[in-house]
Amino acid sequence: MPNAALLDDTVLNALRDQAEERADLASLWLYGSRARGAHHAQSDYDIAVAFTDWQHDPLERRLRPELMALDWQAALGLPENALSIVDIAIAPIPLAWTIISDGILLWDRHPSLRMQQESRIMSRWEIDYLHSRKHYD
């Protein structure tokens, strides 16, 4: 999707507005088919977020992005399953790597927190995946 199309997408603009209202959000990425420009009208919006805080309770940590997706879908009048949100801090490294390498940063309140997450993901990718491929492939 060209950047001009991102600016004209009413759902993405509404998602940016929703992000502004949450003090616990640092950054917002679009990834998946819409970020690649390979979507169709019924494609969902795949969103990754970086939070400003860490939920210590594992259940709360896991549910927070899913509950946010439900809230945002309702607020924007989107159909069920039109929005998928993942917390980049707990996403599997291959998914997180795809988000930061192929996704599009939509909104960034705290660049330092975003860069911290990106650095963590790049380091883990290098250590966990590139290193093992070099030695075991």
Put the structure in a nutshell.
This protein is α+β, with helices and mostly antiparallel strands and 137 residues long. The chain contains six helices and four strands, in the order H-H-E-H-E-H-E-H-E-H.
What does this 3D model show about the protein?
This protein has helices spanning 3-8, 10-20, 33-36, 58-76, 93-102, 111-136, and strands spanning 25-31, 45-51, 83-87, 104-108. The chain is globular. The longest helix is centred in the last third of the chain and has 26 residues, at 111-136. The chain has a single domain (3-136), classed as Beta Polymerase, domain 2. Helix 5 (93-102) packs across helix 6 (111-136). It contains 6 helices and 4 strands. With 137 residues, it is α+β, with helices and mostly antiparallel strands. Helix 4 (58-76) links the parallel strand 2 and strand 3 (83-87).
